[in-house]
Write a structure and sequence with these properties.
448 residues, 9-stranded mixed beta sheet, elongated
């Protein structure tokens, strides 16, 4: 216990002094330091006072040297009789300003360690105080998430450096035998509209219940897993992993899903099932059917996958903010769904992979004569349509009209597309295999 009482928080007095000394020796490095270090990263109060003074002077374009800093500290009331001697001492022990960013890295690491320790203490205190475990877990995840968000600050990047990265992407794309930069969905007309599944994109597939949004998502998952060496992560909050595997087997073996579930198959059909299972087993398609997952849970699991290519989530309205309450007031639930939507977009950027999230549509479309979905039909939309890079909506006329002239003909409406135009794509729905296929005789129509 005595060791715990005397233990100091992580810090490096030498690194803090070296950063301040570098800025006093060479004011030219002040801008670079200020872009990477916040005043609260300094553990020592005297060092923090000096840095805050320099920080303020820089913002007001004031000349920075030992004398001007000392004068400004007097004005700010953070000066003592020993301040001038301390500034001289710091400048004397700083060998060169050339290594200032190495000193900055040490300060940032020490500040992060302190933040983690303080957050850990806070979480521990909440646990000891008791209460609802799920609420405490939600608060703990949020605090850890806030630490991560705080560390991922990206500064202004010169266009020359950005273009180097873009050129690399173009070079990589030119080497592939594909007309699209992203992963193919297996649906050619959709690929041409959205340019495939691209890194960091949040793609929303919305539909009324029973339209087959889970089916089209699993079709895409199956295609990407088979055609690439990438890992496809599927988070199913509604269907069990066995149900999804059954659908995949039906689609892969071309055996009616209903018949497959009975197990009453002919010897030839058993061979097809065996071949389909062997083919699917060669892929790296992973399924998690835990219905209580939060975005933080998914993000943590995906970060452990070294060769991740695609993430699919089924579906948004079943997600929890971080493992907490399910019964929200309607206005609260809208805020929760908006927060989840924003976190999904951040996750897509952080993992640098496309994330497909399924979403329910409200009943608003069913009150209109034309029941085709619109962006405003997104349930608890909030920021969903703002955060998503691409919004797709499924519509089948035979769902509403049993006398439809085109049974099993589906429309995939591109309602939002940051990579191109909006429009309509026709697909063939094959219910016995729970599969969507491209239509040979009909193609995407003009923008609507």
């Amino acid at each position: 216990m005595a060791d715990g009482l005397t233990r100091q928080m992580p810090h490096s007095a030498e690194a803090e002094q070296a950063v301040i000394g570098s800025m006093l020796i060479d004011p030219g490095c002040v801008g670079e330091v200020i872009g990477a270090v916040k005043p609260e990263y300094f553990y020592s109060k005297v060092n923090r006072d000096i840095y805050e003074t320099i920080f303020s002077m820089f913002n007001y374009s004031m000349e920075i040297d030992a004398l001007t800093v000392l004068d400004q500290m007097r004005t700010n009331g953070v000066w003592t009789e020993q301040t001038m001697d301390y500034l001289r001492q710091i400048m004397d022990i700083t060998p060169t300003a050339a290594n200032v960013m190495a000193y900055v890295a040490i300060i940032r690491d020490m500040a992060l360690l302190r933040q983690i320790a303080q957050t850990g203490d806070s979480i521990s205190a909440m646990a000891y105080e008791g209460g609802d475990a799920k609420n405490i877990l939600e608060a703990a995840e949020k605090r850890i998430y806030d630490i991560r968000s705080d560390r991922n600050i990206r500064g202004l990047e010169p266009i020359s450096k950005v273009l180097v990265g873009v050129y690399g992407m173009l070079t990589e794309a030119s080497k592939r035998d594909s007309s699209i930069p992203g992963l193919s969905t297996g649906l050619r007309d959709l690929d041409s509209f959205i340019m495939g599944l691209n890194k960091s994109d949040l793609i929303l597939i919305a539909a009324r219940p029973g339209m087959g949004k889970s089916s089209i998502a699993m079709n895409i998952a199956q295609y990407v897993a088979k055609e690439t060496d990438k890992t496809v992560a599927v988070f199913s909050l509604e269907m069990s992993r066995e149900q999804l595997a059954m659908r995949l087997l039906s689609s892969e073996s071309f055996i009616d899903n209903k018949k497959l579930q009975t197990g009453r198959l002919s010897p030839d059909e058993w061979k097809k099932v065996s071949a389909a299972a062997a083919s699917l087993s060669k892929t790296d398609l992973r399924i998690n059917d835990n219905p209580s997952l939060s975005v933080a849970d998914m993000n943590a699991q995906c970060r452990r996958i070294s060769n991740l290519g695609l993430v699919i989530i089924d579906y948004l309205q079943l997600m929890q903010s971080a493992g907490g309450k399910q019964n929200y007031a309607s206005e609260n639930r809208q805020q929760v769904v908006s927060d989840i939507s924003r976190m999904l977009k951040i996750m897509a950027k952080e993992l640098n992979v496309p994330v497909i999230c399924l979403s329910q549509l409200s009943r608003a479309s069913e009150t209109r004569q034309d029941k085709r979905p619109m962006l405003s039909d997104l349930r608890e939309s909030g920021a969903i349509e703002q955060d998503a890079d691409i919004v797709l909506a499924l519509y089948r006329d035979d769902y509403y009209n049993k006398e439809s002239e085109n049974p099993n003909l589906a429309e995939l409406l591109v309602l939002k597309n940051r990579r191109g135009e909006t429009g309509r794509i026709y697909l063939q729905w094959v219910p016995e295999f729970t599969t969507y296929n491209s239509v040979d005789t009909r193609h995407a129509e003009e923008e609507f």
